[in-house]
Amino acid sequence: MPTIQSIAGQDEQHPDVALVERVRGGDDSAYETLVRKYERQIFRIAQHITQNREDAEDVMQDAFLKAYEKLDQFQGNSKFYTWLVRIAVNESLMRLRKRRTGKMYSIDEELKTDEGSVPRDFADWAPNPEQNYNQAELAEILRKTIQGLPHGFRVVFVLRDVDGLSTEETAEALGLSVPAVKSRLLRARLQLRERLTRYFRRNTPAASQAHEPSRGNGVEK
Amino acid sequence: MTCTEFLQILDDVIDESMAAETRAEIETHLRKCGHCEVVLNTTRKTIEIYRSHEIYEVPTDVSERLHAAIMARCKKTH
Asked: Would you say the ipTM is above 0.85?
């Protein structure tokens, strides 16, 4: 009969740990399950960092292959997904470096500006403002808006708010401190909010007429 | 509570990780400050919209191709 402690231990074990064990035992179908489970998220992160579809596809393949090769180094004291994201982020940064004349990139840079740390536009949004746009228009707005942020902000926002990782897991995946994640997250959220206000503000002629942003001719880069 | 103080804990407010006492102070502030209320609501909505709309969708055929490529390369490393 299992003890209370062993039951608690079983409850705490993430299902990925069992899959990783199976892969280590030679069962490739277990790795296939892990790939299926996370390929979309890894592609999304790679796309957010590299901003290039071809690069994101390559990063996704390389990250999964590298994770497979290095599986013995996975300790199990972090989530498999967090460990995988870290590999994918490093692959993405290397890809950026290759593409852009060898310049070094890191998630830890680009904090020199205070832009977006204080809200300036206090216009309220229309109720369900996304319904004023069709799917393609909305996706374009969301893409262009987030592309305007530094990649170190984008990736924190995506891991924390879209993927739902905790602040600590995000810090671990990106090799950042917890305060650095918090600072980036706040600024990413505020900058996105500020930029989306142009499209989603309540009762503006532009919003109700032509699906155009109410100020300016598009989204700043 | 001032607007600056509110902004400093905005993330905690959104993530609902605050002490009950702080929560009461926030509610008092929000009743008086329309700007902070808008910032809070629209920031929440920003997160919700990004969470519920996939902006980098991978078409199924591309996904299958990538998936097959990954598994083929993994098998080669045996």
From this structure: yes
